[in-house]
Write a structure and sequence with these properties.
Elements (H helix, E strand, L loop, with lengths): L2 H11 L23 E5 L2 E4 L4 E4 L14 H11 L10 H13 L5 E5 L2 H16 L3 E5 L16 H5 L10 H4 L2 E4 L4 H10 L4 E6 L15 H12 L2 E5 L11 H6 L5 E4 L10 E5 L1 H4 L18 H16 L2 H24 L4 E5 L2 E5 L8 H5 L3 H13 L2 E2 L8 E2 L6 H18 L2
Parallel strand pairs: 3-13, 5-6, 5-7, 7-8, 8-9
Antiparallel strand pairs: 1-2, 2-3, 4-10, 9-10, 11-12, 12-14
Helix pairs in contact: 2-11, 3-11, 7-8, 12-15, 14-15
Length: 429
């Protein structure tokens, strides 16, 4: 079933560390051979052995309208003919910035970068430059890309591989990153109180997606907002996963909370390598060349990424019913999964908001990294492989959210629910 994938994985390991270019996709935490993909269309992935999968990763978020959505493909084809990079400004970048501003609240200025990592890294440099303070607060199990300051108690691959301390991150850098538990406002207040006037920024995944999907508890983000206002701290929403997914205006709009800076990743490129950070003029004006907080990139605002992203985001803006449809599909999936999990009779928790969802094999509510880590991830491993065998592609880690795309049909969702029922019977007690 995976003959060609196995051959490619063998070959890949000879020239690529671990055979992959991003650790989670190596399948190490779930075991087995990573599936090598050949193509994708709509809701389906096709691997090199000719197997078809219903996709619940959506390239870790951006494929909101499904893979290889025709207008995006056509736009890329057309614009590639004009050159794939200029290293000079283009009108496309202006259109993209204007479109983002028209969709997202509280963004006066926006700077394009090439990945979510770059966006978050630049946003905290900006917050530090703006406030003249050094320390940041992040949350355990949150992942903001792989820049040094974020690799402290990080989620995603760092949690998946249970890496406690990342070699190469100097103590000097690590000491400026303070961590608190997600959904623990008191913990954050204490950190701020013990470091008066030293915190430049609080960065948060408003809805966490890098330790499975975990929702903010009532009042948590509101409390952080007030704390930041009181203490002159820059409040950063990492919307790499939630941006343009939970609503046209992302988590800010969906949850009704104002951020000072927002970061985006692949979602604004329709899957192309891109990212952005933006926010209030007063803060963003400190970025070079307006200010002296330096940040740059030849591929920033790359024309192919811009036209792909513009085409997709423009559709989302003009057709907001996509969000209702996506949420209805996700609720349908959640309810269907809930039924088969209940019939199975073993502990589980399903967290869902908008089109983000995940299952934790846990007998307690999953509200933070400690509770996510306490789940039975051996069971997840068995479940993952049983689902894969049945043609359902879930994230190969319990520490990742699932993302739905709007190309999924009721038939796909029913097939997924049926596969889950069979998989649970296979996983056993
Ligand atoms: N860290 C990404 C998900 N949170 C995974 C990226 C990838 O493997 O492509």
């Amino acid at each position: 079933m995976y003959t060609r994938s196995k051959e490619l994985f063998e070959r890949a390991q000879k020239s690529i560390p671990g055979g992959v270019n991003s650790p989670v996709r190596a399948f190490r935490s779930v075991g087995g051979t990573p599936v090598f993909m050949k193509s994708a269309k709509g809701a389906y992935l096709y691997d090199v052995d000719g197997n078809r999968y219903i996709d619940y990763i959506a390239s870790w978020g951006p494929m909101i309208l499904g893979h290889a959505w025709d207008p995006v493909v056509k736009a890329i084809q057309e614009y590639a003919g004009y050159s794939t990079s200029f290293g000079a400004p283009t009108e496309l970048e202006i259109g993209m910035a204007e479109l983002i501003k028209s969709m997202v609240p509280n963004v006066d200025l926006v700077r394009m970068v090439s990945s979510g990592t770059e966006a978050c890294m630049s946003a905290i440099r900006l917050a530090r430059g703006y406030t003249g303070r050094n320390k940041i607060i992040k949350f355990e199990g949150h992942y903001h890309g792989h820049a040094d300051p974020f690799l402290v108690k990080a989620g995603s691959g760092v949690a998946t591989f249970n890496i406690q301390t990342v070699p190469g991150v100097t103590p000097g850098v690590a000491q400026d990153t303070l961590t608190a538990a997600y959904n623990d406002p008191e913990g954050v207040r204490q950190l701020v109180a013990t470091h008066p006037g030293q915190i430049a920024a609080i960065i948060v995944e408003p809805v966490a997606g890098n330790m499975g999907c975990i929702l903010p508890s009532a009042g948590f983000l509101e409390g952080l907002r007030s704390l930041c206002d009181r203490e002159g701290i820059v409040f950063i929403f990492d919307e790499v996963m939630t941006g343009f997914r939970l609503a046209p205006g992302g988590a800010q709009e969906r949850l009704g909370i104002r951020a000072d800076l927002v970061t985006y990743g692949k979602v604004i490129g329709g899957g192309m390598p891109v990212g952005a950070f933006g926010g209030r003029k007063e803060i963003m004006e400190h970025i070079a060349p307006l200010g002296s907080v330096y940040q740059a990139g030849t591929l920033s605002g790359n024309p192919i990424a811009m036209i792909a992203g513009f085409t997709m985001l423009n559709e989302l803006k003009n057709n907001p019913s996509v969000y209702k449809e996506l949420e209805a599909k996700t609720i349908y999936l959640r309810d269907g999964l809930d039924k088969v999990f209940r019939a199975w009779g073993q502990p589980y928790r399903i967290n869902q908001l908008g089109s983000m969802i995940s299952v934790h094999f846990s007998d307690h509510p999953v509200v933070d990294f400690t509770s996510a880590s306490g789940a039975n991830n051996q069971r997840f491993k068995g479940f993952f492989h049983s689902m894969l065998k049945r043609g359902v592609y879930l994230p190969p880690s319990a520490f990742e959210s699932w993302f739905l795309n709007n190309a999924l049909s009721t038939t796909d969702l029913d097939a997924t629910i049926a596969a889950a029922g069979e998989s649970l019977r296979e996983v056993g007690e």
